[in-house]
Request: fold
Amino acid sequence: MLENISRLTEMGFSPEQAQEALDITKGDVSRAIGYLFGDPIETEAPETTQEGKQLVNSPTDEEGDEKADDYMGDTVNVKNAQDIPQFNEYRQAPVEEYGSYQYIEDDSIPALNPQVEEANMLEERLYEQTKDEGVPTAIVLSKKKYLENYLIPVLVILGQSQKFYSLIMIDLEEKHDEEDKENGGDIEQAYHFLKEVQYLLYVINYREGKRQYINFDELIKNVPKDFKQKLTEVETVDEVILRIYETLNYNYNLVVGKDSPNYNKIEELLQSMVESIADNVKSGLYLVEIDNDSRSSTLYGTLNQLFWEANFKKLGYMQYERVSPVVSFHLVGDGDDDDINMADELPSQPIHLDEWFYPQIYLSQCISSVMDLRAEEVKHEEERKNLTREILQMNFFEGKKIDQVLKQSLNYLAKLVNEDIYQDLENLRVKMEDERAKNGAKQEESRELMNKTDIRNYQNIVDHYNQLGNPPLAKYELKGVILDDSRYFFKQQDDWFYYEAYSKQFLNNNKVTDYNIVQMEDFEKIQRVVYNHTNSSINGLTLIYVEDSNADSSLPQVNYLQTRFENEEHQFLQKYKEYQECKSPPNEESSDLPSNQLVDL
Reply:
């Protein structure tokens, strides 16, 4: 490192500048020289160290959380083919019989969670003890790897948006008319579906209950026909998320009616509007799809390429006309494709996750500010390059170091005792040193100005836009990360939680035998999980950001939901008491869905 610093200082750069350039380029002298000459260097996400891997393997420091540890370890070390949805083999299944397509299993791959006992742990653990204080009630389904199951993580995460929660929590008891059979019973289906959605949001946001988990098969049983039909047409996981958003809007509109002020409000909440200036086209966008080729090390870097292309060649060509209060992104993995082969897995650009995000910097009204900032950056970049050239010209002449030539000349003149010429040459040497110092200071000032105008740093855009007296750009908060239909993170208030459902792979029926829900100690652990997860081209990922709001945080109350919850709590506590007295679980009907709802294929 000292040798590299010396090499750069010989070129006229200060030791501090040399050290900074080498740090940024990780010791690459050629790239460091380019950086000092003004070439842009993209900052990469932090490398995952061995310590980082240990954090990924252990999302909680509490002893006994083996299942969570198993998952996190598998994220790094095991390629789970059973987590990859396959769609093409089931294209001919009649929609009215199945309604969904099950993910394919590969028995040659080790089980995701080999510690799960053969017996169904769910019924046992429900009555073993009550829920820990401060942890949300887990939302559990009877089976894994069905496309409808994506409803659960999507709704759990959207339910952390106050705007979404308030829209959904309308009084359905007043609106519903049992005799209303308009649209072939679609309204009836929409009503039952929306009522189950309401109950899920109520359960996940009410931490005072005693039950560790609640089975939500009833929600899957009440999935509307339009959603089942759409599932027969999907080819990738991002399409499943898209269809969920569409069916939420469609069925909500059926229930509230066209005359309601809430009509189409779900669409307004979830769908942004994007405009292509070059093609003069506007289109609604529920979900931003990001393929492997478009990924950068950060979400900002990725969107910069999608909207503005590399080196900002098309700045202003693509922009948001409107950014919705909820913004969703899907990082497409090769595992989303029909024809995936595990042998095709390749390293992918891992992404460093941001907990806060400013998507409005890509708004049409913000583009002029971005262009002004970019023009300033280019100007300072050119100034810095010119200063660098001047510094080099003062250090080298025809491939020789000027200082060395001057030193040799001064030594020679000193022997001749020609003081006039010697002094003239010494004055020249001092003057050149002064000029180098001045240019070095100017170069440092230019570098600082470049940093302040660098539009790769989103904060520069936000600050510049706000300084012009514009209304502040809204900040968006990450509310959830979906790994697949049964593994996801969600943020509730200030706390992050991780949920995973388990099944015994050798049974080959995807029946959920156990689950885990743990509170994450800090966001850095989630960042490391995502970093490792996206390091493989196989893995996809869905991110949901919600506009930060200073509005009243109180949530609307719906009496019939509270009554239903309290009645179920009362029944649970009675059975819990019986179990504690006799230490044997009460007989209950199987929670499996009817065979005509979900079929093992």
